[in-house]
Automatic annotation (TrEMBL):
This is Mannan endo-1,6-alpha-mannosidase. Belongs to the glycosyl hydrolase 76 family. It catalyses: Random hydrolysis of (1->6)-alpha-D-mannosidic linkages in unbranched (1->6)-mannans. The lineage of its organism: Eukaryota, Fungi, Dikarya, Ascomycota, Pezizomycotina. Keywords: Glycoprotein, Glycosidase, Hydrolase, Membrane, Signal.
Length: 468
């Protein structure tokens, strides 16, 4: 996942281009009325799809060249939209795009992008495919099954488990030439791998996945990433003196400032995974603790308990990634409430408050464009695809109280009707074809000689590794 600078410059340009004929049409929303929520979700999702061009002539399905991982967030939103509303309008595009980007090896390392991806980028696509399997989104006739794509990502990432530093974990980035991101271990990459393993374990019943989930959790708790007393989740951790097996590097946090350590998704991606472990008191305590933390931190009293990305929203400096996290949290919250019913009464009211505020932000550009800061309860002048994705997700999540009684909405497993084809060896059968890195920009030129050597050596190692 790349952290581009501020979104506000692009947003401002876009805003200037598209402004005109402005009239304030809010998304009308009665949070206690099923049809009203469906209509609002349809409006937000339509707005989201105005940013998607993958089904047009000459375009590539599912491709988001400058922000590849965000495609997975869009498809994740479409899956939930379809699941909770029953509206199949976008299912063809969803199916084609989610399949297209899986790459020739079926592990979401498509060669157009694979040379600059982080473990988290690949993981999000794997989670979207996992969701497709869990929601019984039909497998394609020709291509990879959704379950096997999730397995492909799992197999690929398990091969990158690295005990050289701190006895385990995944680094943020995949390749040495990605610099700092390769020497750092972060919560999203490990939390995501944990979640994927836990969900695969739940779906297939295969203990290989649950062993890896437990191993990743235990490792995370043994580092500063997850504190199993306070339930604080930190962004990342890094050695100070290069790669050593010494544990002392752990004392350094890689954080730009202390308050940068607890962004929305890093806690929730881990939190969501506990839905697979409800029988076990240890897991329940962790779920409870993480939920407490998340609710207290990101649903603050000062906003009237409206969900807020607390670090960037007040200063209006959220980047594209950060705009997406409220949507992802909404989705995961809704599934936690389904899988662990005892959490429903704590989660659902917060999702309702969020949805009402989110819908009120959608008065932009004369066409219901949504803003970033939901707690403003009005359009804040920052439109974008990410904004539409998040609002689509929080609205879909709010259909839970209605659909819960009419049909089974719980994610399925292979023993409760899930029929996505399993392939435990997915992603391992063919070598991954990778291209070279992007042309080196001026800023990266220092040390290019060393970089090239390191690259060549590790390239060979990687290829060998991938082929095992
Ligand atoms: C692409 O999908 C949109 C719906 O999101 C639809 O309105 C449009 O007609 C489709 N375009 C093509 C070329 O199929
Ligand atoms: C990769 O790029 C080529 C050339 O633009 C395109 O034909 C192909 O569909 C792309 N594949 C993916 C997965 O984006
Ligand atoms: C683990 O990290 C070290 C550098 O710390 C690297 O040399 C090695 O190739 C990595 N192993 C794997 C499996 O990625
Ligand atoms: C918390 O994490 C520590 C460090 O890994 C571990 O020793 C301890 O058993 C964990 N406690 C619980 C309750 O899981
Ligand atoms: C979470 O909060 C509830 C209510 O305040 C409290 O009873 C519970 O002990 C907390 N759970 C954990 C694990 O801290």
């Amino acid at each position: 996942m790349h952290m581009p600078g501020s979104f506000s410059i692009c947003a401002a340009v876009l805003y200037a281009l598209t402004l005109g004929g402005y009239s304030a049409h809010a998304i009308q929303l009665d949070i206690h009325n099923e049809q009203s929520i469906k209509d609002a979700a349809a409006t937000a999702t339509w707005g989201m799809m105005t940013y998607y061009h993958g089904n047009e002539t000459g375009q590539i399905p599912g491709a988001f060249p400058d922000k590849w991982w965000e495609g997975s967030a869009l498809f994740y939103a479409l899956l939930n939209y379809w699941h909770f509303t029953g509206d199949t309008t976008y299912n063809d595009e969803l199916s084609v795009g989610l399949q297209w980007q899986s790459g020739s090896n079926g592990d979401y390392l498509p060669s157009n992008y694979s040379h600059f991806l982080g473990n988290d980028d690949q993981m999000f696509w794997g989670l979207a495919a996992m969701t497709a399997a869990e929601l019984k989104f039909p497998d394609v006739k020709h291509g990879f099954s959704w379950l096997s794509l999730a397995q492909g990502v799992f197999n690929s990432q398990k091969g990158r488990w690295n005990t050289t530093m701190c006895g385990g974990g995944l680094t943020w980035q995949m390749f040495p030439y990605q610099g700092g991101g390769y020497t750092m271990k972060n919560a999203i990459s490990n939390g995501g791998f944990f979640q994927l393993a836990a969900r695969l374990a739940r779906y297939t019943g295969d203990s290989e996945y649950s062993d890896w989930a437990k191993k990743t959790w235990d490792w995370s708790c043994s580092t500063p990433l997850v504190n199993n007393q306070t339930w604080l989740v930190l962004d990342s951790t890094e050695g100070t003196d290069g790669f050593t097996a010494e544990p002392r590097w752990l004392l350094e946090f890689w954080t730009r400032c202390p308050s940068d350590i607890f962004e929305l998704y890093r806690a929730d991606i881990i939190l969501f995974s506990f839905r697979t472990k409800t029988g076990d008191q240890q897991w329940y305590t962790a779920l409870d603790g993480l939920l407490n933390r998340t609710l207290a931190t990101f649903f603050p009293e000062k906003t009237g308990y409206v969900m807020e990305e607390i670090l960037c929203e007040p200063r209006q400096i959220c980047n594209n990634n950060e705009v997406l996290f409220k949507g992802l949290l909404s989705t995961w919250f809704s599934y936690i409430a389904i899988i662990v019913p005892s959490t429903y009464d704590r989660i659902m009211p917060k999702l309702q408050i969020a949805a009402v505020a989110a819908a009120a932000s959608c008065t932009g550009q004369g066409n219901n464009a949504c803003g970033v800061r939901w707690y403003e309860s009005k359009y804040d002048g920052h439109p974008g695809m990410e904004q539409q994705i998040s609002v689509s997700q929080v609205l879909s999540a709010n259909l839970l109280p209605f659909v819960q009684t009419s049909k089974s909405v719980a994610p399925v497993t292979s023993s409760t009707g899930g029929d996505s084809q399993s392939n435990p060896d997915a992603g391992l059968t063919n070598p991954v074809v990778k291209k070279g890195p992007d042309p080196i920009s001026t800023g990266d030129k220092a040390g290019a000689g060393i970089l090239t050597v390191v690259l060549a050596v590790t390239w060979a190692a990687m290829m060998a590794y991938a082929a095992i």
